[in-house]
Amino acid sequence: MGCGLCRVHCEAHQTGEDNLVKAFKKSSAPPTGGIRVESLGTRAISVRCHHCDDAPCVEACLTGALYRDVDSGLVLLDHERCISCGTCTLVCPFGAITRDSETSTMVKCDGCLDRDIPLCVTVCPNGALVVKEEEAADGIVRNPAREPVLV
To answer: Which residues contact 11 (CB under 8 A, 6 or more apart)?
Structure first.
C-alpha cells in the first residue's frame, strides 16, 4: 500500500535508535535510510539492497568501502573508506544505493545486521515485506536468517 513505515523505521534505525520519537528528536534532519518506497498509482515497491551474490557495486567501488561481510554474507558499506564518488549508484541494478542529501555520504541497506529479522520486515503492517528462504541452484538452502529476500 506504500505507507512508508519501512522507510521511516529504517531512517530511525540508522540513528542507532529504534524508538521513532527519540530517533527523530536526535537530529535536525531525518537521516536517510537504506530503503525507499516508489509508487505508481496504487502500486508501491520497496527499493533496497538485494545483497547480490555477484554484487557489481563491490567490484566497482574505487576504495573498497563496499564489501561482502564474511559472517553474514551481506554487502556492507564502510563509511570511513567511502569517498562518496557515486560509482556504486551507477552500477547497482536495483538503484538501491543513494546519496544522503544532508551529509553527502552514500547510504544502503545493511540488512539490519544487528537484528535477527530486518526492521522493515517486522514493522510492515500488511506483511508485504518478508524474509524467505531461498534455495541455491544446487538445492542447498542458504543461511535464511542473514540473507533476507524482501518482496
So the answer is: 23, 30, 31, 32, 33
